[in-house]
Amino acid sequence: MIKQTFTFLALIFSIFFLQAQTTSTFEDFNLPADSFLNGSDGSGGFENGNVFLPNEFTDTGTFTFWSGWSISTATDVTTPGFTNEFSAITGGGFDGSSHYATSFISENSIINLKGAAKGGSVEGLYITNATYPFLSMKDGDSFAKKFGGVDGNDPDFLLLTIKTKLDGQIGADSVNFYLADFRDADNNNDYIIDDWTFVDLSTLGNADELVFTMSGSDIGQFGLNTPTYFCIDNLITNDNGPSSSTDFTVEFEVSVFPNPTTDFLIVDWSQNEGTAQITNLQGRILETQLLQKGKNTLLVGDLPKGVHFLQIRNEGGLSTQKFVKQ
């Protein structure tokens, strides 16, 4: 893990404390195991937390077709092909939960921000591959190639691009997340995502929509041959935005690594004594430790998986660093 150095403008009040957050976990749908909602009820989508996931459902009398979003508790990680279009390759939701959302992108998939989240920023969400595209990329099928090709050297990829829209205008910035990437010259670095991975969207700014598109290397006459499905869970919105903050004149220069982490964080700073607190997304303090000048080790192995905040205080002010516990 490459060491990263962050410079923070200390604030008397951290924006984190002034900004409410809502996590859409999709558990409220209370589906039985191995089932799904695909929009066949004509609802047009699914609301959870402060987001709405649009769905389009078509019944021709001969076949049914959906695009956009579905809600799923499917657990099948072994069956290849279109009949297994709702399952996540993880076999369930983030951190052992049962519910998650699956998207099928026809042209794009959209998430509408609702209520207190509308017009604000989105902290991030967890993303993984659906079983159908995962097995298609891993083994190939009658429609799509095996990623890497016969000798493993083909520079294949499947890329999810996330942008924002505010007042009908698409944002200039985007976040790219590779669901699979075989472009490295060293085949040992090739991968297909098979776990829930946190994707930070906080850099995209304010929005009333998230827009998801997909691109890749396996292109045919009608576009991508690779199935354009992916899964999300625990989408975190920032609600109402920060009310106010007062600048404090001191800047902290502090290194916090590794991030993401599994067992520990190193906090390396040049200040005198301070206090480090780890909080969850609801602001509950999980760990507190005194800091000394130099390198300090914070044990985080017992923390639950997910996004946390490291807040560092001394007489000069307060700084906040977000990290992911895997």
Task: Please describe the topology of this protein.
Blueprint: E1 5-11, H1 15-18, E2 20-24, E3 36-37, E4 45-48, E5 51-59, E6 64-72, E7 100-104, E8 109-113, E9 122-128, H2 131-139, E10 157-166, E11 169-181, E12 191-192, E13 197-200, E14 209-216, E15 219-220, E16 223-224, E17 229-239, E18 247-257, E19 264-269, E20 274-279, E21 285-291, E22 294-299, E23 306-314, E24 317-325
Detailed description of the structure:
This protein folds into 2 domains: 5-17 and 244-325, Immunoglobulin-like (Sandwich), CATH 2.60.40; 20-239, Sandwich (Jelly Rolls), CATH 2.60.120. The longest helix has 9 residues, at 131-139. It is 4% helix and 49% strand. The protein is mainly beta and 326 residues long. Strand 18 (247-257) and strand 19 (264-269) form a beta hairpin. The protein starts with a strand and ends with a strand.
Outline of this structure?
The protein contains 2 helices and 24 strands.
Oligomer: single chain
Shape: globular
Percentage of residues in DSSP E strands: over 45%
Total number of β-strand segments? 24
List the defining traits of the structure above.
2 domains, disordered N terminus, Immunoglobulin-like, Jelly Rolls, mainly beta
